[in-house]
Specification:
- The chain has helices spanning 23-30, 50-60, and strands at 6-7, 33-34.
- By secondary structure, the protein is mainly α.
- The protein has a two-stranded antiparallel sheet with strand order 1-2.
- The relative contact order is 0.20.
- It is 21% helix and 4% strand.
Length: 90
């Protein structure tokens, strides 16, 4: 079973944010990521946005970016943008 079919960039990042310089964000602005398998691997150089993408997907679906479940969340500090909507499609 595939739980997430597609990830698309919907905007909302401030114009001068470092996030706009991440290769994954630059890519997503032009291309959605399609998931066709129940398992996905994110591979790339340091600083390309792999963890940022995974955290954004987690937050968009109502999970904590630091891990856990909807009912059991780890939270060391607020590290993600308040602009990411929770509980919907990314």
């Amino acid at each position: 079973m595939i739980y997430i079919n597609t990830v698309r960039y919907k905007g909302g990042i401030e114009e001068f944010s470092y996030l706009n310089k991440l290769p994954v964000i630059e890519y997503l602005k032009e291309n959605p990521i399609e998931f066709t398998s129940p398992v996905a691997f994110f591979v790339g150089e340091n600083g390309t946005g792999k963890s940022t993408l995974i955290e954004a997907i987690a937050v968009a679906f109502g999970f904590n970016p630091e891990g856990g479940t909807r009912n059991f969340c780890f939270n060391t500090s607020e590290t993600h943008s308040s602009r990411i909507s929770r509980g919907g499609n990314p």
